[in-house]
Amino acid sequence: MFRLKLFIAPIFVLLFFIITPGQSQSGDLEAESLAKFEFALIGDVPYNTADFWKFDNVIKEINANKKLEWVLHAGDIKTGSSLCSDELFQDRLERFQQFRIPFILTPGDNEWTDCHRFSAGSYQPLERLSRLRTLFYPKAEMSLGQSPMPVITQASDPSYPEFVENVRWMKNHVMFATLHIVGSNNALASFSARTQADDEEVKRRIKATLSWLHQTFDEARARNARGVFLLFQANPGFELIKGDRRRLGFEEILDAFEQESVKFGKPVVLAHGDSHHFRVDKPLLDNINKRQIKNVTRVETFGADDVHWLRIIADPSSPEVFTIHQEIVEQNLKKRSLF
């Protein structure tokens, strides 16, 4: 009996040390999954050649911040009147690839919808859209940046194989997604060479957007996400009354934002560019009760000549989840010396 006790005791001690660290590690992993993290948001940059130095400063600041997980760009990588050439696209791609962390771009109207303009080169917009997809989304399930990260793409859906730009990912119980929604009335603005193919593209893209939006919220609910962050380019006219012509191309999407946000009931951020006016507000209304939807926050980026960036903290343990900080680049407030 004495020998048997000696034999059992070491086994008991060994099991204690094997099981206890495992339980502790599980607790650490759970704590880590709710840890807060930070990322950068920019948009409508770089616009003008004269401001390239400002964008370089933004890149330097973001690269120097070791807490940032990724960079989000809300579209419009050029002015609406500048040339939509392959050379310009390549220039922007090379600039974006200077970011050391993952970089995710959602397209804007300036880089394809408005390329029919004479000053932009009189391009066929759908041809430019195809070129954008080829250049800026070379690997459908990976971001850009020097350290790309994996994402889920809508292109994996057989119904929407061309939509490589619509992506989704999740970190620490927070869901992120991009939606291809652009200015110029979501590409419905008329132009002299407009064809039926242009009209059909808008219909299909809105259908794809709605599908991706609903899937994103379905996934967020299924995985008990603490918050949802959606990125797109256009200012869809949140403040305008339903039926206003300036909401043309956006009505169905705005309705979906409202319905899904109310159903989700947790913090939702709708981030965009387009207007070149930094703001954080709550413009989304419940069309039935005409009341502000409190769990939805709109964030519009700095843009155009106002070349700065936003640092966003996501804290899954906080009731608000998202906190937005202005990062003013002091050097960009000064005029550049010619000497």
Q: What would the keywords be for this entry?
A:
Purple Acid Phosphatase, chain A, domain 2, 339 residues, disordered N terminus, 5-stranded mixed β-sheet, 7-stranded mixed β-sheet, alpha/beta, single chain
Summarize the structure.
The protein has 339 residues and is α/β, with parallel strands linked by helices. The protein has 7 helices and 14 strands.
Structure description:
By secondary structure, the protein is an alpha/beta fold. The protein has one domain (37-333): Purple Acid Phosphatase, chain A, domain 2, CATH 3.60.21.10. It is 34% helix and 18% strand. The protein contains 7 helices and 14 strands. The protein has helices at residues 2-33, 52-64, 86-96, 125-136, 183-187, 196-222, 251-264; strands spanning 37-42, 68-73, 103-105, 152-153, 167-171, 174-178, 227-231, 268-272, 279-281, 285-286, 291-292, 296-300, 309-314, 322-327. The strands form 3 sheets. The protein has a 7-stranded mixed β-sheet, with helices on one face. Helix 3 (86-96) runs parallel beside helix 4 and helix 6 (196-222) runs parallel beside helix 7 (251-264). The longest helix is centred in the first third of the chain and has 32 residues, at 2-33. The radius of gyration is 23 Å and the shape is globular. The termini are far apart. The model is unreliable at 1-30 (pLDDT under 50).
